[in-house]
Amino acid sequence: MINYLYHYYNNMATVVQTTPQQKERCDLCKRFLRIKILSANPIKFEIYGNPTSQYGGLFCSSYCSLNYTKIIKKKLKNQQVSLS
């Protein structure tokens, strides 16, 4: 499946095809990630400045990163308890 981003510039929509490795959304809350606009015409941007956690993932904020870490640690703890 091919993903597309729709960008609006001067009331005209341009469609930019995203690459499979380019993530657009937070792994926890599914909000958009922070971007840095490199060029306005044609629009070019890069995803930057987004926190991650020791368990991986890409997040929109440090709050999501910390919550994801807490969730994973809780799951790992529950797995260790159930194995005992």
Topology of helices and strands:
Layout lengths: L3 E6 L2 E6 L17 E6 L2 E5 L14 H22 L1
Describe the protein in words:
- With 84 residues, the protein is of the alpha+beta class.
- The chain has one domain (4-83).
- The protein is 26% helix and 27% strand.
- The chain is built from one helix and four strands, in the order ββββα.
- It has one helix at residues 62-83; strands at residues 4-9, 12-17, 35-40, 43-47.
- The strands form two sheets. Strands 1-2 form a two-stranded antiparallel ribbon. Strands 3-4 form a two-stranded antiparallel sheet.
- Strand 1 and strand 2 form a beta hairpin.
- It is rod-shaped and about 60 Å long.
- The model is unreliable at 1-15 (pLDDT under 50).
Summary keywords:
84 residues; alpha+beta; two-stranded antiparallel ribbon; 1 helix; 4 strands; 26% helix; disordered N terminus
Q: Give the rounded overall mean pLDDT.
A: 77
Net shape: rod-shaped
How much of the sequence is in beta strands?
25-35%
Q: Classify the helix fraction into a percent range.
A: 25-40%
Roughly how many Å is the radius of gyration? 17 Å
Estimate nothing, just give the exact number of structural domains: 1
Biggest sheet overview: 2 strands, antiparallel
Spatial strand order of the main sheet: 1-2
What is the number of helical segments per DSSP (H or I, 4+ residues)?
A: 1
* H/E element sequence: EEEEH
- Record field, number of beta strands: 4
Oligomerization state: single chain
Q: CA-to-CA gap between the ends?
A: 42 Å
Are there runs of 5+ residues with pLDDT below 50, and where? 1-15
Structural class: alpha+beta
